[in-house]
């Protein structure tokens, strides 16, 4: 059976005291058993979150990192820096990074390479804009994101990779993709991995859905065969709604 995962991506939300207050109540409630739980706070709060959550089986994930080892890249964070504060996983290719920070498939391929070199786990995001959904080119678009950004890795490397499908038109809009649309794309992603690697690799890769997942739609989305969990934005910022989404697996 594949891993089940619910990951909260806090984006640019919560300072240190807000993070402390979320975590103190979250820790009282979260009991990851059948489902792996992850939280991606801001860089400034990663170390606090790591220390606070290490006995609670909740993984702390970075939202991004630079592809180079070190150097003159003002404002950037390296893999080594993340590892030094206990963070061993990173989200790469989130659509907001692609859109606002010009991250291309080529840059992402380099980031993937660096993360793997440092034995970090990767949540690799893909997803189409609304016009591609409307004009029917969304499969081709996602396939290109995968092949150019991720498919240079080895079969062995897939053990460290989680794919997240996040249609851009559903992120933060309240407009969720239907469970059927999600399943269709997840199945396509799994088949694409199978064609380029192997059935064994494809069967083992967790594929998460992200885009307006809420307590009231999580169960139905998670019930689909190729959906192994969610990458949650807005609803991960409140303990109550995040817990309900985690518990949607029960
Ligand atoms: O990384 C998370 C996604 O961008 C989804 O965000 P959302 O749940 O606020 O739509």
Write the layout of secondary structure elements.
Blueprint (H helix, E strand, L loop, with lengths): L4 E5 L6 H14 L6 E5 L5 H8 L4 E5 L16 H6 L4 E4 L2 H6 L4 H13 L3 E6 L3 H5 L3 H12 L11 E5 L13 H18 L2 H6 L2 E3 L5 H8 L6 E4 L6 H9 L3
Parallel strand pairs: 1-2, 1-8, 2-3, 3-4, 4-5, 5-6, 6-7
Helix pairs in contact: 1-2, 5-7, 10-11
The site of glyceraldehyde-3-phosphate has 14 residues, from β8.
What features would you describe in this structure?
Helices cover 42% and strands 15% of the residues. It is an alpha/beta fold. It has one domain (5-247): TIM Barrel (Alpha-Beta Barrel), CATH 3.20.20. The chain has an 8-stranded parallel beta sheet with strand order 7-6-5-4-3-2-1-8. Strand 3, helix 3 (79-84) and strand 4 (89-92) form a beta-alpha-beta unit. The chain binds glyceraldehyde-3-phosphate. Glyceraldehyde-3-phosphate (G3H) binds at residues 9, 94, 166, 171-172, 210-213, 231-235.
CATH superfamily, by name, is: Aldolase class I
Mean pLDDT: 96
Bound ligand species: glyceraldehyde-3-phosphate
Mind telling me the CATH class?
Answer: Alpha Beta
Give a short synopsis of this structure.
42% of the residues lie in helices and 15% in strands. With 250 residues, it is α/β, with parallel strands linked by helices. The protein is globular.
Spell out the key features of this protein.
TIM Barrel; eight-stranded parallel beta sheet; 42% helix; 250 residues; alpha/beta; binds glyceraldehyde-3-phosphate
